[in-house]
Design goal:
The complex is a heterodimer of chains A (116) and B (111). With 116 residues, chain A is mostly beta strands. Helix content of chain A is 0%, strand content 54%. In chain B, the strands form 2 sheets. In chain B, strands 2, 4, 5, 9, 10 and 11 form a 6-stranded mixed β-sheet that branches. Chain B has a 5-stranded antiparallel β-sheet with strand order 1-3-8-7-6, with no helix packed on it. Classes of the chains: A mainly beta (116), B mainly beta (111).
């Protein structure tokens, strides 16, 4: 149980284009989903918190117009990287917290974004 | 400002011996701590957690110890197995569902 999927697992795009990453909770309903970013050999940095049906809360320093987050249902959240640049290349990971759960977050497998 | 620190970037342990991974934090408001295991190019997997009202929590081969006065927690793995080789992250939260992660410790268990 508590499986979270991400799609795609790997994407390469050209500079200036937009990329959408999907995060799904497969066997539970997630009241809250989180988006993280991880640079090589560094920690996971929280980018934003999204609750179903409401606007995402972005962490300080994260541009909300660049990283668009939509949490349309209790099982799906999407992150769109708009007008991507090479510095946006990173490993993006989502996590989800179950409605009836405690503090545990269940993580997706991550998406490797490379902007050329 | 790194509120959660894992000062050892790597650790090597012989199979069958104990692995001890350490984590220090600075924010006294943290009241819930978790350990996650991560393989390359995969998302973290939850291992074990502890609330600040406890000083120890055990689950099979994994035990987490919390020393609130020292703002320190540790993860003990006994006995260590080659499959335990991964990067281990500690995380902390302060009464919310938002985690602050440490920088990770790469554990290598030698057969």
């Amino acid at each position: 149980g508590a499986v979270v999927s991400q799609h795609p697992s790997r994407v390469i795009c050209k500079s200036g284009t937009s990329v959408k990453i999907e995060c799904r909770s497969l066997d539970f309903q997630a009241t809250t989903m989180f988006w993280y970013r991880q640079f090589p050999k560094q920690s996971l940095m929280l980018m934003a918190t999204s609750n179903e049906g409401s606007k995402a809360t972005y962490e300080q320093g994260v541009e909300k117009d660049k990283f668009l987050i939509n949490h349309a249902s209790l099982t799906l959240s999407t992150l769109t990287v708009t007008s991507a640049h090479p510095e946006d290349s990173s490993f993006y990971i989502c996590s989800a917290r179950a409605i009836a759960g405690g503090y545990e977050q269940y993580f997706g497998p991550g998406t490797r974004l490379t902007v050329t | 400002d790194q509120q959660v620190k894992q000062n050892s970037p790597s650790l090597s342990v012989q199979e069958g011996r104990i692995s001890i991974l350490n984590c220090d934090y600075t924010n006294s408001m943290f009241d819930y701590f978790l350990w996650y295991k991560k393989y390359p190019a995969e998302g973290p997997t939850f291992l074990i957690s502890i609330s600040s009202i406890k000083d120890k929590n055990e689950d099979g081969r994994f035990t987490v110890f919390l020393n609130k006065s020292a703002k320190h927690l540790s993860l003990h793995i006994v006995p260590s197995q080659p499959g335990d080789s991964a990067v281990y992250f500690c995380a902390a939260s302060a009464g919310t569902y938002k985690y602050i992660f440490g920088t990770g410790t790469r554990l290598k268990v030698l057969a």
